[in-house]
Specification:
Strand content: 15-25%
Largest sheet: 5 strands, mixed
Helix content: 25-40%
Oligomer: single chain
Order of helices and strands: EEEEHEEEEHEHEEEHHHHEHEHE
Length: 331
């Protein structure tokens, strides 16, 4: 006998597998996070999978979970089963979904972390109702997702769209990807610190941030720059203005390529959006091809915040177990 599982009655686990921490949450069909556990990210394949196993089992002791979704910062195979490459994780060409599914006796799917966040925002957050939606997750670098009429676009090999590595400055700042001048080197949390250092090298700014950085260069972070800009620090305000310019130019590139009706700004830097988004919108409006003669994409910031990747991975796992299954066990 074949029975169809109703995904609306399932609880699933979404896991954000980051380079520093693993965060796993039980999520219901409305996108609500019911329970969360967190652990440091180990540095070997076996230890990492052991940690994920422990996290899922701890949640499964408290909730009847039916499937697991992993949001991974890396290249995922088109069938969502294999991590091809993840720069901050030990997996390379690793059949992670099969290995974890065997251990947990649950369906497991993988998704790029930006795609998972984009799907969550489309289903439950800032991207709801969009037709062609681009999510730009700005943190240490830039991750991106593209949804067209409610479908994630992954490209032919599962790795699209890598917008953060569009080259915007020939022979520009070195990028860990091996290229130079990538967009994320000028528009990210890392870029905030790099831009501040470059400005200090050519300017005698006397702001509090400048004095602190000259005394202790290692203390400079993107978060600190944003905080100083909030306080009106002269150097930090100039850094955020440069960031806004690069964000606006990047949005123009994105619009020229995809012509979205909605762009969602997510990631850690999005919490500082009041400092740069209006100015970025102005740069975008003037830099886009056909400026003044075409509609611009609406710009929104994330509604789901740092939970978006977990919620999206859990929702994609829920959809994966909604297909017909043999028997009546629910697995």
């Amino acid at each position: 006998m074949t029975q169809r599982i109703d995904p609306q009655h399932l609880l699933t686990v979404g896991i954000d597998v980051g380079g520093t921490n693993i965060r796993a949450s039980v999520v219901d069909a409305e996108g609500e996070v019911l329970d969360t556990v967190q652990a440091p990210t180990p540095h070997s394949e076996r230890a990492l999978e052991d940690a994920i196993d422990r996290a899922v089992r701890e949640l499964a002791r408290r909730h009847p979970v039916a499937a697991v979704g992993l949001a991974v910062a890396g290249f995922i195979s088109a069938d969502q089963s294999t991590v091809r490459f993840a720069p901050h994780l030990p997996w390379q060409d690793a059949p992670v979904a099969q290995r974890l599914s065997t251990r947990l006796e649950l369906p497991v799917i993988l998704e790029h972390d930006a795609n998972a966040a984009g799907w969550a925002e489309y289903r439950f957050g800032a991207a709801a109702g969009g037709h062609t939606v681009v999510l730009i997750a700005i943190g240490t670098g830039i991750g991106a997702a593209l949804l067209i009429d409610g479908q994630l676009y992954r490209g032919s090999h599962g790795v699209a769209p890598e917008l953060g590595h569009l080259q915007v400055v020939p022979d520009g700042r070195a990028c860990p990807c091996g290229k130079r001048g990538c967009w994320e080197r000028y528009c990210s949390g890392t870029a905030l610190a790099d831009t501040a250092i470059e400005l200090l090298a050519t300017d005698s700014a006397r702001s509090a941030l400048a004095r602190d950085v000259r005394r202790d260069p290692g203390s400079l972070t993107g978060r600190r720059v944003a905080g100083a800009a909030q306080d009106g620090d002269e150097l930090a305000v100039r850094v955020l203005a440069d960031f806004a310019r690069w964000l606006g130019l990047g949005l123009a590139f994105v619009s020229d390529i995809f012509d979205p009706d909605l762009v969602v700004i997510a990631g850690g830097v999005s919490s500082s959006a009041p400092l740069f988004l209006d100015e970025a919108r102005e740069h975008y409006a003037s830099a886009v091809t056909g400026a003044g003669h075409r509609p611009l994409a609406r710009l929104r910031t994330t509604q789901l915040g740092e939970a978006a990747g977990m919620i999206g991975a859990a929702e994609l796992a829920r959809a994966a177990v909604g297909a017909p299954v043999a028997g009546g066990s629910g697995r």
